[in-house]
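Batch job 17 of 40 flagged for manual review because the log was empty.
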Amino acid sequence: MENFQVSPGYIIKGTTVLDKGVNFGIFSRNATKMTLEIFENLSDNEPIFSYDLDPKRNRTGDTWHVYILGINENYSYSWRADGPFVPRLGHRFDYNKRLIDPYAKAITPKYLCENTFMKNLIVNERKLLELEREEVPGTEFKETVIYEMHIRLFTMNKNSNVENPGTYKGVVEKINYLKELGVTAIELLPIFAFDSEDTFTINPFTGEKLKNIWGYNPIAFFTPTPRYSNQTDILTFVGGHIIEFRNLVKEFHKAGIEVILDVVFNHTEEGNENGTTVSFKGLDNSIYYLLSQKDKRYYCNYSGTGNTINASHAVVKELIIASLRYWYAMMLVDGFRFDLAAILGRDENGNWIGDLSLLKDIADDSVISGAKLIAEGWDAAGGYFLGEFPCGWAEWNGKFRDTVRKFIKGDPGQVSDLATRVIGSPDLFSKYGRKPYHGINFITAHDGFTMWDLVSYNEKHNLANGEDNRDGENNNNSWNHGIEGETDDPNIIALRKKQMKNMVVILMISQGVPMILMGDEMAKTQNGNNNAYCQDNDTNWIDWDRKEKFIDIFNFFKNMINFRKTHKALKREKFFSDSDLDGNGYTDISWHGLYPEKPDWSYESRVLAFMIDGGDINGTDEDNDIYVALNSHYEPLTFYLPYIPGKKWYRVVDTSEPTEDFLEIPLVIEDNKYLVKDRSSIVLISK
């Protein structure tokens, strides 16, 4: 095009919109030729302008760059890279492939480009900077209560009664609901651009092709997926999903709720040697991925999805940190949960190097260090590094999940470990100068049973996933309480509800940060499917009618969250020290059994009682003393209460009470003992 002028440009990756044109930059060490193509319309198959970058003028080191005058954000682009195709050496260049820019801030979705291909959109970041920059909540980690949720599944059901179901806007319409529940942060399942059509399985019951709805196969690390946008017209699309996501963050911040992103940097959608070429494979496969040292045709598969990002390489580190800085500083999200984060702590040979890895670089970064950083401390290759992450990292506490499930089910041998989990898992998180709030406590998450299914099924029921029930976790520590699945038996329903409440009690009175799975507060069921990644239907959508059906469960969640918020003793900044700061004869936490100071740590024990001294928080703060008794035995047991001179005990929680399980006005206990019913929990406060 005669209106376009070309100059060497600047060494900046991605696109940079300047006053008179756009600068383009991309990395490739092993490419021999790099071509930039410019498209006038998103639906075009052929470019209006194509330019072969000159290695002498348009390349500095391994960065290719060019500045084109006359172009603005109304155009789109793609890259082509040529070079050796020698898979045994790790090279898979294919000049016929049009490639996604790893630094692209937006790409066209496949569902808008049925007859063409995905393109990179040019985004003017200066316009993003001009958007209103609201004050962020800045919630302290110790004050945080996380709600893990999925954008589409949250509001897709018709009974969600939102105007924009399944979208960023739809979630915004439900902010008041989340405020009522009391959570302080939402943790969004992946919103990086992904292809939901990359599955090949069929639902054997309906014949429908299943979709990879969770989004754990990213295409690009900088762009929010367009599939949650409210815009469907290709002519008006052009990056509108960025504004919609940014508005979601803004509206949640106005409501005092933080936004945490579940991010996937451990692998990409491109899969293994039989997978597609979308971006990284075609730009420099041997740099971006960990390849087998024996034969570089094959990919290391620490992720379980076919490939593994080479997070120990400086170029890949630079890309990931740039992505995190963009989401934190430009889009103003408040933190990140890293999927299979153990992979980011491995070197190029797969060895765990923790404090010498990208994980340390992220925690020490001058920008990202202000974000909440949460790790999944394991990966699909058997790596389990829970508690081994560098200072500054919080971690999903899988041991908390497993121990609480076993204790509630009534398994023997759990009491001692449960006590360790309740006090914040110091065995895991006291290393490297970390605090109790660096443990993220959870009982259920997207991956596994919902809490209602946890008390309703002994076995997973995943046949609808089209994999003959082979997928999903087999060791769930679940119990159906007498009947597999749904039942009309009022006694079993009452017991299941009570067991849910027992789990919520432990979750909310434990040191650390509690995380709730979307829908658990209204007893969401997936009909026993514990791996619903491919169910974009009413199996997985939130059924909003269940809020009224299980209003007692919802209110219990809400009340326990509020109880946690109002008691400083449950949100300590330091681990318990077994000291008596206020001189009342009790240490900061004291352990009891059926009798005061006589805990039963035996293998057959199924009871645990403890008292947190409200005067022993940190020397200045004071709170009520809090006494908790947990009875997972099949019989009621009498617990004798600790004596505190000048004070009485008041009941707040008794999960055996169907209508008065939580008392907003606590009831005084006139006796020195309390009968805790079978499979029940109580919470008392002193006054």
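Reviewer: the log was empty due to a logging misconfiguration, but the result itself is present. The chain has 16 helices and 27 strands. Unflagging and moving on to job 18.
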